[in-house]
Amino acid sequence: ISYKLYGIINGIDYEYFSPKAGTDIYESYTEKSLDDGKRKNKLALQSELQLSVDDEIPLIVMITRLTETKGIDLILHIIDELLSERVQLVILGSGDEVYESALRAKGEKFDNLKVIIGFDRAMSKKLYAAADIFLMPSKSEPCGLAQMIACSYGTVPIVRETGGLYDSIKPYGNGGNGFTFASCNAYDMLYVIHEALNTYKNKEQWVALMKKAATTDFSWSYSANEYKKLYEDTYNSWN
């Protein structure tokens, strides 16, 4: 019955989630100042979180519930291998105690990992603005908002190809705005993370990809037009 189904993703509030307004972030920026603006926000965040202050280190961020559905077990499976590389990872969220405890332990082991248990709306905006990569390996996701919010800040998403994540994020190399992986496999995810990190080394390509993400239209106006078209098509099919 798939031909009977039609999916429309949610929209986001661009007045609230906007680096232009600069609300709750270190320094405002626009699409024209995307590279410099994100660099300044990264340096400020690194300093606040007591990470190595270096704008050339790729910064990966997760803002999520710490549950199996959100793919936290995939992260834990490869986190030692990932953090052995020249990369920084910041995770903000709360959830199952087993995942909170495991991530706290990893945070004590690795200097390039910062785990913030709980939810801090102001900090979440700082993370969106400062990050180079937003990781969202959900096992299921009807729509998802975080990947769209990340794009609005010019942060490149890595998502699993499920539900609204794959509706909103298309793979780089095919004119897409991020990176994707298909299976619930930790090493498939790690492979794509490495693909993103290798692309990050090419400044010209990375800036173009950030701009592609930042200019993807996830407004409610776009979603409203999709609803309008669906209603019109449905009406016309019955008349």
Alpha carbon gap, first and last residue: 22 Å
Question: How many extended strands?
Answer: 6
Q: Point out poorly predicted stretches.
A: none
The amount of helix comes to 40-55%
Kindly report the average pLDDT value: 96
Shape: globular
Strand-pairing-aware structural class: alpha/beta
How many alpha or pi helices? 9
Strand % is: 5-15%
Strand count, sense and barrel status of the largest sheet are: 6 strands, parallel
Order of helices and strands: HEHEHEHEHEHEHHH
Strand order of the largest sheet: 3-2-1-4-5-6
From the alpha carbons, calculate the radius of gyration and give it in angstroms.
18 Å
Report on this structure:
The protein has 239 residues and is an alpha/beta fold. It has nine helices and six strands. The chain has helices at 34-48, 72-83, 97-109, 121-130, 146-152, 163-168, 186-200, 203-214, 220-237, and strands at 59-63, 88-93, 113-117, 133-136, 156-160, 179-181. Helix 2 runs parallel beside helix 3 and helix 2 packs across helix 7. The model has no long low-confidence stretch (mean pLDDT 96).
In short:
With 239 residues, this protein is an alpha/beta fold. It is built from 9 helices and 6 strands, in the order αβαβαβαβαβαβααα.
Q: What attributes does this structure have?
A:
239 residues, alpha/beta, 6-stranded parallel β-sheet, 6 strands
Write the layout of secondary structure elements.
Blueprint: H1 34-48, E1 59-63, H2 72-83, E2 88-93, H3 97-109, E3 113-117, H4 121-130, E4 133-136, H5 146-152, E5 156-160, H6 163-168, E6 179-181, H7 186-200, H8 203-214, H9 220-237
Parallel strand pairs: 1-2, 1-4, 2-3, 4-5, 5-6
